[in-house]
Write a structure and sequence with these properties.
By secondary structure, the chain is of the alpha/beta class. Helices cover 45% and strands 17% of the residues.
């Protein structure tokens, strides 16, 4: 049987591996739990790793909520999954859209969060500015991209990830298996977020990670980290979004070092040796 939890009016697909301090990985927009295979294999040697498909994605149930209720609903799903697995407190790692979920969980359920890692993400969409208004308009018109046949977008995808084969292969698979209507509503869900004030109240350890591929991405993550009282930022060379697939060995080493400093749990082998396996 597939590991599917029935909770909060939906079904949530998840995988769990390893023992120790729980780490919950939350995928990006248009991706699924499979984007964390390099992390599942690596961190499960010393930690209890949980990956899942958010509702409306991958093998999980349908997303019926309106955009203004999606993020809070998906956060509650993760909390209820943690309850089912008898996990009181976990380290949360979110990539891109998953970073938004992590920020909301830190805001809504801080007592359930041991530490956070936010990668290739952002903390606000400012709709009051001209740029923000254009971004909001782009979100509403982006349905054209979501409903277009995935095959039509493959050349663009291949060009974007031409240096990162693992990221391309995973992105290609997700693109061809996409759930357009639900992805579109999730895109709208992030069009008005603003966590800039809420982040300042989160008092647990935090790590920001971003690839150096775009200055805009670095600027967004700098803002996230600047708002968190106990945060540090690491920029990974030669990496785009998602940095965990563009440079998985470097990403794993950066997160491992952060986890060691916060949990005291160390890998049984040096990081350099692990990365070379």
């Amino acid at each position: 049987m597939l590991p599917v939890a029935q909770l909060n009016g939906t079904s949530l697909y998840y995988e769990m591996k390893g023992t120790g301090t729980p780490i919950v990985f939350i995928h990006g927009h248009g991706w699924t739990h499979t984007m964390f295979k390099p992390q599942l294999d690596y961190f499960s040697k010393q930690y209890r790793v949980i990956v899942c498909d958010l509702r409306g994605n991958g093998k999980s149930g349908k997303l019926g909520q309106s955009p203004d209720a999606i993020i809070e609903t998906q956060c509650l799903d993760v909390i209820m999954l943690m309850n089912d697995l008898q996990i009181r407190e976990a380290v949360l790692v979110g990539i891109s859209y998953g970073g938004i979920i992590v920020q909301q969980m830190a805001r809504q359920y801080p007592e359930r969060v041991k530490a956070i890692v936010i990668a290739d993400s952002f903390c606000r969409n400012e709709t009051s500015t001209v740029l923000g208004a254009l971004q909001l308009a782009a979100a509403y018109f982006s349905w054209l991209v979501y409903y277009a046949p995935g095959e039509l977008l493959l050349p663009t995808l291949r060009l974007l990830y031409k240096r990162w084969g693992l990221a391309y292969r995973e992105s290609r698979r997700n693109l061809l298996d996409k759930r357009p209507g639900e992805l579109y509503r999730q895109r709208l869900a992030v069009s008005r977020i603003d966590y800039t004030e809420h982040l300042t109240t989160f008092r647990r350890p935090a790590l920001g990670v971003v690839g150096d591929y775009t200055e805009f991405g670095i600027t967004c993550m700098k803002e996230v980290v600047s708002r968190l009282p106990q945060a540090q930022l690491v920029v990974i060379p030669d990496a785009a979004d998602p940095s965990n697939l563009c440079q998985p060995d470097v990403f794993n080493a950066v997160v491992q070092q952060f986890l060691e400093s916060q949990t005291g749990v160390r890998q049984s082998k040096p990081l350099r040796e692990e990365a070379g396996e």
